[in-house]
Structures are given as structure tokens and as C-alpha cells.
Design goal:
One of its GO terms (molecular function) is phospholipase A2 activity. This is Phospholipase A2-like protein. This protein has about 210 residues and is mainly alpha-helical. It has a domain of about 130 residues: Phospholipase A2, CATH 1.20.90.10. The chain is about 55% helix and about 5% strand. Strand 1 and strand 2 form a beta hairpin. The chain is globular, with a radius of gyration of 18 Å.
Length: about 210
């Protein structure tokens, strides 16, 4: 999941420089993917599989990256798996446009992220128990917050994996500030979520 907690380097790839022309095929594919269009498969760029080493497949009604997953520092509900894989595919389509020097505008990454948010929250609503749905919803909020933080750091350009501990020179210090900001953001959401879950648990006990 690109719902994945992956650090992204601003400006390294996809930055803020506006493209004169967006890749038409990639733009059409993104719109189809986020709208759950049945035409999504046919709209994936023809050379996508060659460039990325896989062909998208259908899972639970979504076109996904079969090798994708929900990369996260916390364990996420299994119901999120298909949504995470679809999110990974969406991010790869953004990277495709970047590779052919016709990057998509910020609308594309926002749309892919919004689709993830919608799908994981919808997955939670399929649970039978009210408390279980609430707990799942909290995890969905945490997952989306992690994705949103990274997208904002990246300024909604093409996603780039960043190793915050990498050094180009022995004298350099690793840049931990991006990681720190993400951890602090996740900590705040997790703390708030714990309060909500505790309140729900106490409320539930009143009627047991």
C-alpha cells in the first residue's frame, strides 16, 4: 500500500514541477481505477506490465497489484488487503506516468488515496458487531493518516521510496525528521483512537 507506511522524498521524483502534458493513458487508468470502472483493465497502458514486471489482476471486484500489500508499522485488518493492493497499483500508474516524462497532477494521487480511504472504511462496515466495526474504523483512520502524511510530504507527486537512514557520505547524518513527523502523527492518531475505543467499551458495558 503505497496505505503503506512508506517514506517519500519530496522533489526526488514527481516533486512540484508542473508537467506541460499529462500522460493520457495513465490519467484515464487512474480515473477508471478510483471509480471501480469495469473498463479499468483495458485502460492500463499497454507497456505497463513490461515496465513494472507484473500485470494487474482482479481481486474482490478491484483491479490490483498482485504483489502489493498493506505495509504498515501496525497490524491492519485483513479486510484491507484488496484495497491496499488496489492502492499499490494506483501508485504504480502514477510512477508509470513519471517514467515516461508525462507526470500526472496532484489530483491523481489525491484520488488514489481517497479511493483507499473509502474502501477500507467500507470494508469495516461489513463486520457484524458494532464494537468490531468501530475498532476497524479506528484502524482505517490510522492507515489513511499514514498514507496522507506521506502524500503531503511528497506534495502529491509520483511516490518514491526513501531510506531515511541512507548516507551518501560517512560524515553525513541520516535525515530522521521526515520519519519523526510521521511517527508523531501516527502516535497522535493512535492515542486518540485508544481513547475512542475505551469510551466505546465503557459505553457497551452499560448495556451488558
Amino acid at each position: 500500500m503505497a496505505a503503506a507506511v512508506v517514506m517519500s522524498a519530496p522533489g526526488a521524483m514527481g516533486g512540484t514541477t508542473p508537467a506541460t502534458t499529462e500522460n493520457v493513458a495513465a490519467a484515464a487508468a487512474v480515473r477508471a481505477l478510483v471509480d471501480d470502472s469495469p473498463d479499468a483493465t483495458s485502460l492500463i497502458p499497454r507497456d505497463f506490465g513490461y515496465k513494472f514486471g507484473y500485470d494487474p489482476v482482479q481481486v474482490d471486484g478491484l483491479l490490483v497489484n498482485p504483489n502489493g500489500d498493506c505495509s504498515s508499522p501496525v497490524t491492519l485488518p485483513p479486510e484491507f488487503e484488496s484495497a491496499c493492493k488496489a492502492h499499490d497499483l494506483g501508485y504504480d500508474v502514477l510512477r508509470y506516468a513519471e517514467r515516461v516524462d508525462e507526470p500526472l497532477g496532484g489530483w491523481a494521487r489525491r484520488s488514489v488515496d481517497a479511493a483507499l480511504n473509502r474502501r477500507i472504511h467500507a470494508a469495516c462496515q461489513l463486520r457484524d458487531d458494532e464494537f468490531s466495526r468501530a475498532r476497524c474504523g479506528v484502524m482505517a483512520d490510522i492507515a489513511f493518516t499514514a498514507v496522507d502524511v506521506n502524500s503531503r510530504r511528497q506534495e502529491y507527486g509520483a511516490p518514491v521510496v526513501e531510506n531515511v537512514f541512507a548516507r551518501t557520505d560517512p560524515a553525513d547524518r541520516p535525515n530522521l525528521w521526515p520519519l519523526a513527523r510521521t511517527v508523531l502523527g501516527l502516535f497522535a492518531v493512535t492515542a486518540a483512537s485508544a481513547v475512542i475505543i475505551d469510551a466505546l467499551r465503557k459505553f457497551r458495558r452499560r448495556f451488558v
